[in-house]
């Protein structure tokens, strides 16, 4: 007889494969380039004098600073436990279980699908088309022909794991066509690494635009779990009804607020520039040797002769990468997060060695 939890779990979740998160993987690599983390760390001081109190629902100084950083108003912003909570919250707020649909455009970030599944929300996949761009006609056709309402369309730009920026004209085409019908969620987790402008300047024109942001990537704060959902006030108000009562713990608020100081923002911009230089160098080395996807994130996707063997060879050299082979069209593709200069020197040497031995 199976254990109690196995008997009690909701049947639709029994076979759910959880997200393969960075630390869940275990193992004893020395160089972790599997989760698009930022290799740099910064020092922060904590003031514990308010730790006996519940925190502010939305810490005002944090909201003021992020609103200024992003160029939006405080009413257009909700701080969450990472961008992942924003994804989950959008689905829980707008999609009825067993009824509504989301659209996503694979190959892309895995949590859109997992959050939909855990909330019994249908998923329609409209794969990225030429040049890994969103297939606007395909999405609109899917919305039109769907038997159940499509409430959310997820677009990731720069896209994880391919690295492509989504063409702004395609995003505006979606926003225009779905204006009265569905929210278009543009996930800008990696926007600081991109040369392309954010779509946030479209917020005043589109009631159906939602943007996801995070401090996990450019700000090097994946460990504190702080993200932001940005949209017009009516959307934010609905989300604020559903989110947990204290979404931003006091220590998180303190660190995040300090991270958004003018001085730290300029430090972050310098570090992003350094990482982008290392990304260009990595791409230059491997482009003549194998297929390297152009990237606007802090990672590069490459096709190798055999992804499993490559992962193993790299792990022997102490370097942990991410195998993306299960994603549509990405067979034998590995994703390499950009680390420090020393980490990249070792990674370039080990990957060159693997490619030489497998040719
Ligand atoms: N969106 C994308 C595209 C991501 O790659 C990630 C994390 N890898 C997230 C959202 C979630 O970020 P957070 O750490 O803020 O939850």
Structural write-up:
The protein has helices at residues 4-8, 60-70, 82-94, 111-118, 136-145, 168-177, 233-242, 250-259, 262-286, 307-316, 341-358; strands at residues 31-32, 77-80, 101-104, 122-125, 150-156, 183-187, 209-214, 227-231, 291-292, 299-303, 319-320, 322-323, 333-337. Helix 2 packs parallel to helix 8, helix 3 packs across helix 4 (111-118) and helix 9 (262-286) packs parallel to helix 11. The chain has two domains: 4-40 and 264-358, Aspartate Aminotransferase, domain 1; 54-261, Aspartate Aminotransferase, domain 2. The radius of gyration is 21 Å and the shape is globular. It has 359 residues and is an alpha/beta fold. It has a seven-stranded mixed β-sheet with strand order 2-8-7-6-5-3-4, sandwiched between helices. It has a four-stranded antiparallel β-sheet with strand order 9-10-13-12, with helices on one face. It is built from eleven helices and 13 strands. Its EC number is 2.6.1.9. This is Histidinol-phosphate aminotransferase.
Summarize this structure as a short list of keywords or feature phrases.
359 residues; alpha/beta; Aspartate Aminotransferase, domain 1; Aspartate Aminotransferase, domain 2; 2 domains; seven-stranded mixed sheet; 11 helices; binds 4'-deoxy-4'-aminopyridoxal-5'-phosphate
């Amino acid at each position: 007889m199976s254990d109690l939890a196995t008997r009690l779990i909701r049947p639709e979740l029994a076979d759910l494969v959880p997200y393969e998160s960075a630390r869940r993987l275990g193992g004893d690599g020395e160089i972790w380039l599997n989760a698009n983390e930022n290799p740099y760390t910064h020092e922060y001081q904590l003031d514990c004098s308010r730790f006996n109190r519940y925190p502010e629902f939305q810490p005002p100084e944090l909201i003021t600073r992020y609103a200024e950083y992003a160029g939006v108003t405080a009413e257009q912003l909700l701080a969450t436990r990472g961008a992942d909570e924003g994804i989950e919250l959008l689905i829980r707020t707008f999609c009825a279980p067993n009824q509504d649909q989301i659209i996503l455009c694979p190959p892309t970030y895995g949590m859109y699908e997992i959050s939909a599944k855990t909330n019994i929300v249908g998923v329609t996949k409209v794969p990225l088309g030429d040049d890994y761009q969103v297939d606007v006609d395909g999405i609109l056709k899917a919305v039109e022909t769907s038997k159940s309402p499509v409430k959310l369309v997820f677009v990731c730009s720069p896209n994880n794991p391919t690295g492509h920026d989504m063409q702004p004209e395609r995003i505006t085409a979606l926003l225009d066509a779905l204006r009265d019908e569905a929210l278009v969620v543009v996930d800008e987790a990696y926007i600081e690494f991109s040369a392309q402008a954010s779509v946030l300047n479209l917020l005043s024109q589109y009631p159906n635009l939602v943007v996801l942001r995070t401090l996990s990537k450019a700000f090097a704060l994946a460990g504190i779990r702080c993200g932001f959902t940005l949209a017009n006030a009516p959307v934010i108000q609905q989300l604020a009804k559903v989110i947990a009562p204290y979404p931003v713990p006091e220590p998180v608020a303190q660190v995040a607020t300090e991270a958004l100081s003018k001085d730290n923002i300029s430090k972050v911009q310098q570090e992003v520039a350094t990482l982008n230089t290392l990304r260009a160098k990595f791409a230059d080395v491997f482009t003549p040797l194998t297929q390297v996807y152009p990237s606007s994130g802090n990672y590069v996707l490459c096709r190798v002769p055999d992804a499993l063997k490559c992962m193993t060879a790299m792990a022997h050299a102490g370097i942990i990468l991410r195998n993306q082979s299960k994603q549509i069209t990405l067979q034998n593709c590995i994703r390499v997060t950009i680390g420090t200069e020393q980490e990249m020197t070792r990674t370039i040497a080990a990957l060159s060695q693997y490619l030489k031995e497998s040719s």
